[in-house]
Amino acid sequence: MPWLRTVAAYAAVFALALTINFALPRIAPGDPLSFLLPEDVLAEMTPEDEARVLAEFGLDRPIPVQFADYAAGIVTGDLGVSVTYGAPVWDVVIGRLPWTLLLMGWALALSTILGTALGVMAARRRGEMGDIGATVLVLAVGSAPVFWVAMLLITLFAANLGWLPSYGAVPLMAREGSAEWILGVAQRTILPVTALTIAQTAGVWLTARASMAVALSRDYVTFARAKGVPERGVFWRHALRNAILPIYTNATIGLGGLLGGALVVETVFSWPGIGQLVVQGVEARDYNLLQGVFLVATLAVIAANLLADLTYPLLDPRVRR
Amino acid sequence: MTDLALPAAPPPRLSRLRPVQRTGAVLLAGLMTLVVLGPMVLPYSATETVCPGFARPSAAHPLGCNDVGQDLLAGNLVGGRISLAVGLLTATVATAVATALAIAAAWRGGFWDVVAMRMVDAVMALPFLPLVIVLSAFFGASFWVQIAILCLVLWTQPVRELRSQAQSLRAADYVDAARAMGGSGWHVCTRHILPELAPLIVPQFVRIAHAAILTESALSFLGLGDPLAKSWGTILFHANARTAFLTDAWLWWVLPPGLLIAASVVALALIGHGIGDRYADGTVAAAPRTGASAPRRTEALLEAADLTVSYGGQPALHGVSLAVPRGATIGLIGESGSGKSTAAMGILRLLPPAATIRSGSAWLDDLDLMGLPPETLRALRGRRIALVPQAAMAALNPVRPVGAQIAEAAWVHGLRDAETRARALMAEVDLPADRYAAYPHELSGGQRQRVAIAVALAAEPEVLIADEPTTGLDVLVQKAILDLLAQLSAARGLTVLIVTHDLPMIARRAQRLAILKDGRLVENGAPEALADRPNHPHTEALFASILRLDAPKAWTRAAAPMTPVLEAQALSVTYGTSLAARLRGRQPAEALRNVSLSVRAGEVVGLVGASGSGKTTLSRAALGLAPITGGAVRVDGGPPQPGGPAAMIFQDPYQSLRPAMAVAEAVCEPLAINGMSKDTRTTPVRAALARMRLPSDDGFLLRRVGSLSGGQRQRVAIARALVAEPRLLLADEPTSMLDQSLRMDLLATLETVRAAHGLGILFVTHDLALARHFCDRIAVMQDGQIVEEGEAEALCAAPQHPYTRALLSAAEA
Questions:
Q1: Of A306, B200, B383, B441, whose CB has the highest number of CB atoms within 10 Å?
Q2: Which helix (H) or strand (E) element contains residue A173?
């Protein structure tokens, strides 16, 4: 039962994330309490207070018991309380998740389409000057830090040309759900998605170009030509049909990276997604919040990978059953 | 490095960097010089306040100043030290850890490999940046902590790729050879696997450095960097906090650090990725002829006239002319590198991009294929002149059903009822009807070749070009495929050009033979005429190397003494019983069942069978490298053990010797493993080379194995087997990868060595005719069991088992 093995593998990933989260406050240098309470509260506490709080959080019990409690809490959706928001971390993070997913979804779709189309075209002309020039250009663009690209986009399109808004995700004056509101969100989505797409396309482009070049060099392409298949058919039915497989796999592997990019880009645009939580969490040393973000991000990536694993056999008959 | 007391070897040639990689290296070196030397030249440091906050660029401060009046040029230069140091240090540590783990996992295999790879998978599935953020938040962000965190997260990235490479290296014949000599795991990993892995480690290093620099900048940008240390990321963090990108300051505050990051990363990317990869592979749709055409000289349906082809300036075919009359079957014969496949594929204009058709013509009736516009040529391919490819597994599209691939060959030429045709053809090539929707990987090798034939016939062509149509198939399957091809072409009146290296097979089937050597046609005539009156010495050598079943035995030896050097008694070997194999859901596989066989000193025993019959497993058992689950095997009276009195000669000298090794290093490996001192090694090495009739001067000892020809390599491999003075040689098809004309010579040398030292030889082969001539006794093996055993001539004269009979009829046909 291969699917069972897949599920088990992802359960192991989740368990690893849990263990990291559990271990961090206990092995990091410093008092475990300093990771639980804000500094000003901590400063006013007496040793008796501290012992009481430790007992309250169960930190005086044996480590395995603590871990079992922790894991049970996580499974029931209890990620602790965010000191910044004074609310359960789970609620805070889940509330922001759709905004981050909005950016990621668009960027994933656009970069995959764009990268595949351009990369495949480059593969057909591989070795020619145009291809080499394009590869160097793509490597250069893909090497730029995504937040820096975002800053330059704001400079150009918001500050200088004034075409697009650069702040937040929603127009302040519009009623939520109204046409004006939707248009405002759409306008504000353009620049962050563009920055993410630019950063993400390079990777897709390289994968698409390499896998298409490999497919075009295969014997089945030669044999298709020997059958008299027109070049268009060779391209679509034989070369691209096979080149799609690594592109598909890589797009899902790249999801983790895309998420990281989204977090960083959000801070440039003050986008109300998870990235903003990260910055606030870092500033306020809100450890629960950061750990919650990490855990939810892990879940999101696992879900995406699981989906990809389960759908891949539809594309590749060799791994069916 | 050589293991002999010899004059110093010339230093190994550094692999030349490609221009793109050189650009990257120069760029990176430039950046490093800039950030190391730059701050020493500037009159002020990056942390002192030297001008008013937000000062615009001026002569004294070319990049202006930040919000607290620190010079931005100094900041960028000093920041570069941090950014580049984080990247390069992280890459060094993480790559070292990954390489060690990858090699260890690949070498150990089994349970620990599974555990290690599951762990790597799990770490890699964690969302990268959120994990780094959490770690940085807890552990703080000093320079060294940052490197530690990045290493902790990035070490997994190269493990997968390096481990899968190390695993394929571990399966390489030269690793097997080293283990057979008794080499320890440490010896094999450091002397064979690591040197071969090295070129792959460099791009991994670069990839990690690339990721580390970008991550460091992202962390600093998020405010998780060391607030006191300047890096390119922290400069951008402050610029962002002051929304510098909304003012003119973007030009001097935002642009430079980003450009520097991008330049560093792109330099690494250029070094690591390189460009222009694999572009010599594959084919172009229709490479046009560059030079003059040649007139048609015969009435033949297919005629190559003065065809000249070169590969990147190196000529591969010199004016080859060849006629295939309508309805005839012509064999085009040549050894590896003779240009036979270039000729066949050249006629179809399906050559790799590096090839150029210089001049000449290929006439199909009155059409010159070399001069046709691509679309006209395309319409002829498959429809009038079709290809039966070699290695159908690679030639069939792996993700489309085979039936659809047959039908496609019909409908692209506008033929109606393509599916009906395809189904009819499948019946004609003896494929079950329910295989129509099967994918290539679900078929056996023989079935795939049948599909390829059906594809070739789908559009009812007049001419078939079969390019080594039976490569890689079992003897019995080869015969069936060739019979099918002959029967179909007779029924349809096809004109056939068969390209092959197998002279005995084609001599029985073709009306005429054309023999290519070094790109030139050296012979053209009827098989009997060529056998009787060869015009070229090469033809003579080829025919002389054919061992006929009905000819007098080529090697007869006096009866061997009764001292056995190999005794297998009721030996059973079962693979896949380990815990790890069970975890992976594999079924145990019995490779040998109840096998009893002995080889006496000075005796040559042939072990004949199809691939997968267990022939090689018996050799491995004699080396102590197979899991014995029943019975016993003794070598020269003792238990089998690597480095013992048995030595193995592998089938393919291109695999069994690592090309980067010097001849001396390769031949003395068994001695080095045995711990013989360096000064005393030279004499036996030279003696072993001389016994194999190879040069033994210093120049030859220092040559790289990769620069030798196939025949020389096999002699070096045998010299390596002989150097430790074995009592038993396990020869695993030692001549099957060599060109026909070299075989007799090699066997003669082997015979001399055997006679001189009284060696026992277990001669593993699939070629019954060869075994009959070279061996004293023959054991026939099928499915892990010996089904028949006897004196070589007697066994071939009166075979008892049906499988032996089938093998004999395949050898005769």
A1: B383
A2: none
**Poorest-confidence range of A27-36, A194-203, B624-633, B670-679?**
A27-36
What CA–CA distance (Å, rounded) separates A101 from A97?
6
CB of B191 closer than 8 Å to CB of B179: no
Which residues of A fall within a CB distance of 8 Å from B218? 145-147, 260, 264
Give the mean pLDDT of B581-585.
66
Q: How far is Cα of residue B488 from the mean position of the Cα atoms in its chain?
A: 34
User: From CA B143, how far away is CA B476, in angstroms rounded?
Assistant: 67
For residues B306 and B289, what is the distance between their CA atoms, to the nearest angstrom?
12
Encoding tokens for residue B767?
């070629």
Model's pTM, two decimal places?
A: 0.81
Q: On the CB side of B41, how many CA atoms lie within 13 Å of its CA?
A: 8
Stretch A204-223: mean pLDDT, rounded? Answer: 88
Which residues, listed in sequence order, are joined to residue A58 by a DSSP beta bridge? Answer: none
Q: Distances in Å between the alpha carbon of B9 and those of B3, B12, B13, B611, B723? A: 11, 8, 11, 41, 22
Please name the amino acid found at residue B785: Q
What is chain B's length? 813
Report the alpha-carbon distance of residue B529 to residue A310 in Å, rounded.
Answer: 63
The mean per-residue pLDDT over the stretch B635-661 comes to 87
Residue B181: closest CA among B587, B727, B648, B610: B648
What would the two tokens of residue B514 be?
């054309």
Measured distance CA(B85)–CA(B75) in Å, rounded? 15
| Interface touch B224/A282, C-beta < 8 Å | yes
Q: Which of A13, A282, A317 lies closest to B125 in CB terms?
A: A13
Task: Give me the count of residues in chain A.
Answer: 321
A35 contacts in B (CB within 8 Å)? Answer: 138
Torsion of CA B196, B197, B198, B201, to 10 degrees: 160
Question: In this predicted model, what pLDDT tens digit does every residue of B106-129 receive, in sequence order?
Answer: 888 778 888 888 888 888 888 888
Torsion angle defined by CA atoms of residues B173, B179, B181 and B183, in that order, rounded to the nearest 10 degrees? 130
**CB nearest B413 (choices: A20, A228, A237):** A228
Determine the Cα–Cα distance for residues B787 and B654; give it in Å rounded to an integer.
Answer: 32
CA distance, residue B368 to nearest chain A CA (Å): 17
The rounded Cα A142 to chain-centroid distance in angstroms is 16
Q: How far is A52 from chain B (nearest CA, A)?
A: 23
By three-state DSSP, how is residue A65 classified?
Answer: helix
Contact B753, B649 (CB under 8 A): no
Strand B367-368 and strand B385-388: pairing?
unpaired
Q: State the Cα–Cα distance between residues B136 and B143, nearest whole angstrom.
A: 11
B352 C-beta neighbours (distance < 10 Å), count: 18
| Angle in degrees, CA B791, B794, B800, rounded to 5 | 100
d(CA A313, CA A304): 15
Sort out which chain A residues have CB atoms less than 8 A from B20's CB and list them. 132, 136
Q: How far apart are CA B762 and CA B726, in angstroms?
A: 13
Half-sphere exposure at residue B108, Cβ-oriented, CA atoms within 13 angstroms: 14
Number of neighbours of residue A253 by Cβ within 10 angstroms: 18
Indicate which of A31, A151, A207 best probes the interface with B, i.e. most B CBs within 10 Å of its own CB.
A151
ipTM above 0.95, yes or no: no
DSSP, residue by residue, A78-144: ---EETTTTEEHHHHHHHHHHHHHHHHHHHHHHHHHHHHHHHHHHHHTTTSHHHHHHHHHHHHHHHS
Is there a contact between B445 and B473 (Cβ–Cβ < 8 Å)? yes
CB contact under 8 A, A228 and B379: yes
DSSP code of residue B562: S
Q: What is the mean pLDDT of residues B393-398?
A: 90
Please name the residue that has the structure tokens 């009807």. Answer: B433
Distance, in Å, from the CA atom of A149 to the CA atom of B548, rounded to the nearest integer, reads 74
Lowest-confidence region among A30-39, A194-203, A257-266: A30-39
